[in-house]
Amino acid sequence: MIFRIDHPVHTWQTFVEAAQAHGLRVAELGHGRIRAVTHSGIETADIDKALSIVHELLQFQAV
User: Is the separation of the CB atoms in 44 and 13 below 8 Å?
Assistant: First the structure.
């Protein structure tokens, strides 16, 4: 999957750094495009964990 971040808090750089800090490896492919893929041995629980991390990172609460 390739996607871009359009978020009030995160840039693509801060999103990639935060994801990696949570153990989710994603990469930037140029022009702010982020790549996320699965590999052999990845199970449903791993996908659920990755989605949970992304959801957590993209939560935004105005103060």
Answer: no
